[in-house]
Write a structure and sequence with these properties.
The complex is a heterodimer of chains A (174) and B (594).
Chain A: H1 2-8, E1 44-50, E2 53-58, H2 59-64, E3 68-74, E4 79-87, H3 88-94, E5 102-107, E6 112-116, H4 117-122, E7 125-131, E8 134-135, E9 145-148, E10 165-170
Chain B: H1 2-13, H2 18-24, H3 33-95, H4 101-115, H5 131-146, H6 154-297, H7 303-334, E1 342-345, H8 346-363, E2 367-372, E3 379-382, H9 384-401, E4 407-414, E5 423-429, H10 451-455, H11 464-474, E6 478-484, E7 488-496, H12 501-523, H13 526-542, H14 546-561, H15 567-593
Amino acid sequence: MAFIVLFALSPITLNPSNASGFMAASSANPYGGAAIDPLPASATIFTVTNGKKSVNYSKNSLLAIKSTIITIQEPFVKKKQSFTVIPLDYFLGKSAITSSMTIDTIALNDYIYSNKAGNFSQARAYIAIKRFGKDIPYNEGGPIRIVFDTSSSWFKYLDAWNWSLRTIKVKKTA
Amino acid sequence: MHGTGLFVLLRLRKLPNFRKRNSELKVSFRLNAFQLILLFAIICTLVFLTVLTGDISRGASKDVNLFSSAELASTSLLFAQRESLAYTTRFAQWVGGEVDRRDVQIARALLAQRLNVITSSNLTSGALFSQDYFKNLDEADKILATAHPGILPRSEAKTIELQSKAFIDSMLIETRKLVVVYQNNLDLVLAKAAVDRRHKAEQSLFVLLLFLALALIFFASLIFTLVKQYRANTKANVEQLRLITEANMQLSQSRMVVDQLEILDERKNIFITTVNHELRTPLTSIVGYIEILRSKLEGMADAELIKIIEVLERNSNNLLNLVQDILSLTNLETGASGLLKSENDVIEIINDAILSLTPLAEASHISITLSVEDGLQTAIHANRNQFSEIITNLLSNAIKFSKDGSSVRVHIDKGVTNKPTKMLRISVSDQGIGIPELELENVFSSFFRASNARKSGISGTGLGLAIVSRIVEEHHGSITVESTLNVGTTFRVEVPIYVSEIDEYIDSHQIDVLVRAIVAIETSTISDLRNVCHEMIGVLGFYGLESMGSEISKFSTWLKANETTEEDQIFLRRDKLLEVLGSCLTQLRDTKEI
């Protein structure tokens, strides 16, 4: 509590509303960063690699995969959001990644979270491709991200919620 | 002897009541008010200590959570710094022509995403950055928005490099500042948590010391109380020992008194016997002379003289009876009666007694009847004179207390007392005045006379039933009384029947003999079976088991007539015989056990 108070009273405190002057009017994120030069719909946005074999997914190919919608309390912005999701198991199966293999989930900013594929499956990990039926903006974790259902054991384990995901790769064993 | 026992009892009643004193000395332990308060304080302290310890434990967890929260905030901050540096680097690379504009835009978008994350303080990560930081971002966004898409052309690069130099420097400075601020804040939080922990630890230590102090006082108080009680108990034990010694002395004295009384009792009996002898001899002589005198005066007309002689005779007889009763009782008590028992027929004894008492009964028009249960063995093992005294006493009492014209009934049947010996029961019933229920228990005491007998003026010494009771005891028998006031009284005497030595022997061997017969018949071969049966018929007859002998005889006769029959038939017939013998054996065992 004291920590929170100290931070609140810090001289560098700034509310998002104070920064609204420089925000892009079209962005839902008050900290801007919405404008991105567009890519063609067929361009690869997600790659799954198992050894030498890689499977590339474009926006179009992802939309062609059977998906479902889940509604969760998004833990980073702490708001209820509906995501169009594809189970991670689908991609693991397509690339013949077994549960005993350790996989790296790599974001566009090179953030990496690693764990066994089986653990991801057990935690019922999803790849979210849309939010509220629309593309997920880059400044809000898009274009694709890993999410977990409220009932998942990893729902509160935020390290695994890799956003702006670009690659899943089987980790080489030593 | 009874008097002596009573005297000793009276003396013992004066002894100290040890049972009561022992209960008073029972070791008991109770906490006093001070100790109870102390105990309550100890329990309270213990509870407080437990709560405090729990609080410290929870506090430690809370500290960890706090640290975790700080870590979460710091993680977010560090990620934001990372994204900020990544963006600045990408921007610099773009200006240098190494990456295209889209890469920078993505880095900017990821930075925005990170700044928008809500931390544990419920503020966005961006809230931790300064206004200058956001001004720089705003400047950079403008440059980026107006620049050529893709790789920055050389023509624009120089201008943008100049425009963005200040921005890049400023971004790096702002980002570094955050690290310092974060460290300072974290230090403050941790220092406060440490102070809190120390404060709680001090509180806990104080309560622990208080608990120890209270416990020490409590135990000291307990020890003090126990020592005090021990001293009190020791004192009481000494007092108890003194009382026991005193009681032992009194007991010794009482024993001496008892011994002396026993000697006196013996002397009394000798005295009574002597006096009785001395009284009985002249009294017998007086009675005899009175009878002679009366016979000589018979026929003379002096009625007054005859009346005087009759009074003399009656009183002399009463006196003689009293002396004889006292003598009998004394002899019975001292065991001087020298009881010699033999086989006697109880019917003969009763008939003699009835005969001797008939004049007395006839005088009051009272009839005496005797009935005997059919097939009853009436021989008893008794001293004839003494048993006669039992019957005479009971009959004379019955006549004495019966109304004129009523009847006295004597009945003999099987005894009902549960004893191994067979008993004979003699019941003497009258239709007299009866005995009050409350006085029934005293009828066999010496010199006891029922209140209604005394009131009605019927003479008696109160020794008759006491003598009867002692004689019955001497004969290993029992006597009971049943009475209803103004209806009548029944005395029941049970005595063992006479058993000769041979009968006793036979009786005790009947079971063995029957078992032997059963085993012999069961185990013999068909060829020996007839011989065995013949032997057994004689043996069983000798031991009074004639009926079983007869059964075997029937079987033997059948066997002779059916010599050629099949073995199975013989065995079947033999088994039936064994069944009969077995049944008899069971009955015999049951009878003997009773």
